[in-house]
Amino acid sequence: MLPHKSKFLLLLCCILSLGFIATNLVGYFVARDSLSKQITTDTLPLIGDNIYSEIQRDLLKPIVISSVMANDTFLRDWIVAGEKNPDTIRRYLQKIQQSYQTVTSFFISDATLTYYHSSGILKTISPHNELDKWYFRAASMADSHEINIDFDPSNPSQLTVFINYKVLDAKGDLLGITGVGLALSAVQQLIEDYQYKYHREVFFIDKKAALTLHSSEFGKDAVFGNGIIDPAIKGKIINTDSTSFSYQQDSNEIFIDSRYIEEFDWYLIVRQTDEYLQGSIFNSLLINLLISMVITAAVLTFSWRTLSGYQQQLEKMAVTDKLTGLNNRQMLEPVLEQLFKLSSRHNYQLCVAVLDIDNFKAINDQYGHPFGDKVLVAVAQLIRGLTRESDVLCRWGGEEFLILMPNCCSLDAKSFGRKVQQQLATTSFNIEQRQINIELSIGISQKNTEDKPESLIFRADQALLSAKRAGRNTIVVS
Questions:
Q1: What CATH number does residue 424 fall under?
Q2: Which residue, 326, 356, 393, 419, has fewest beta-carbon neighbours within 10 Å?
Q3: Structural domain contains residue 18
Q4: The predicted structure's pLDDT at residue 1
């Protein structure tokens, strides 16, 4: 008797074969309807995924660069020290611009309103200058960054896509705004490349349904819905993070795939029409469907078990840190949300502990990163051996580990932290024939009635910073 999976595969192959044959016999309109559904549910979302992956490679990089600048301790220290020696910041911005091949890099001090540029000090901005009002708007925004299309002060004739990123001090107070810029023409060229490669229209809209980034074929002042998308279906896009659907416009069927890009706070729109279904292209489609029946059956028969294995492996990889085998940050966030809700509903305590290996950079510098990786693995195994089954341990980033501790008060969490530190103190790690002693600083926070998930972690992180400042190998409870 055939296994259940083989039976299912055989049945699926038969259904697909009969479906393809029936499609060819039914005729033009049924085939068109079937293909329209396939485009809406499979083809266009897949193309949208591919374009989104390329956007992450091409357009999200400047956001990452600006984030790194905003969190650079050199920049913060230079500001706090009183912005002495402007040539220092000029060389820093110039290095950023050259290293990442951006058209501009800048920093504006909130204290002095000085506009520092890779070429030097450009000017002092003013709230009374129309060209400078973007800064005061960005300084008061709730988000950490924004994307703004404006003329570059260092090259007033060039429209530039700016990433404006807030620089905050340790208390969260604004120090200024930094970031980089891409030439708008270069960004438009990227979008045109996507359109040429995938033969679909590609553009972005904001939450007000206004065009933002688009190819040069759209006018500079083009408005969303003006000959692009029917205004009647705006709500289907704006009210959901990701969707794929079709609608009728005049005599054509329009296919739309949209997805919200959080880093931009915009929606990526991929659009196509059904024009290619007409005439000889449709006749070619009928022939291809016949060939596809045989190919699909062969591919399904050969690859079913392999794909099942890959799927399980990918699901595991998506929530596991590759180096340590612990849970990763992506897995932790939804678990924290769930534990937070359960804690509130059932009125039990919840603690977060953030553990950081002291002087880990020195270990990497002295012995090399491969050695440092082995240290991370050894520490992760030790901590995992001391946690409870109900605790959720993950690698939070770099040399930091985070533990969610349900049904645990801050005193118990601190006791656990001491237990980890004592275990480390009595353990001499033998790595690559080297004896090394390891210490941890630990920050702990306990959920209170005013906490949100992010604030609970934030307080634990701030406690960790206090532990570091207190001399390391210490525990601080928020």
A1: 3.30.70.270
A2: 419
A3: yes
A4: 42
Look at residues 323, 355, 257, 270 and name the one whose alpha carbon lies nearest to residue 40. Answer: 257
Q: Are residues 389 and 346 in the same domain?
A: yes
| In the predicted structure, residue 93 carries a pLDDT above the cut 90 | yes
Amino acid at residue number 175: L
Round to whole Å and give the CA distance between 87 and 108.
14
Residue 444 has a pLDDT of 94
The CA distance from 421 to 440, in Å, is 6
Token pair 């928020």: residue:
478
Q: The pTM is what?
A: 0.44
192, 215 contact by CB (below 8 A): yes
Sheet with 400-406, strands from edge to edge, namely: 392-397, 400-406, 350-357, 440-446, 475-477
Tell me which DSSP letter residue 111 carries.
Answer: T
Q: How far, in Å, CA of 231 to CA of 73, rounded?
A: 47
Distance of CA 325 to the CA centre of its chain: 22
List the 242-249 sheet strands across, edge first. Answer: 201-205, 266-273, 252-261, 242-249
Flag whether 295 is in a domain. no
**pLDDT of 217-276, one tens digit each?**
665 445 544 546 677 778 888 888 888 888 887 777 788 888 888 767 788 888 887 766
Integer Cα distance of 126 and 114 in angstroms: 10
Residue numbers of the domain that contains 258: 4-58+199-280
380 and 462 together in one domain: yes
Q: DSSP string spanning 405-460?
A: EET--HHHHHHHHHHHHHHHHT--EEETTEEE---EEEEEEE--TT--HHHHHHHH
Q: Do strands 392-397 and 400-406 pair parallel, antiparallel, or not at all (unpaired)?
A: antiparallel
CATH code, domain carrying 107: 3.30.450.220
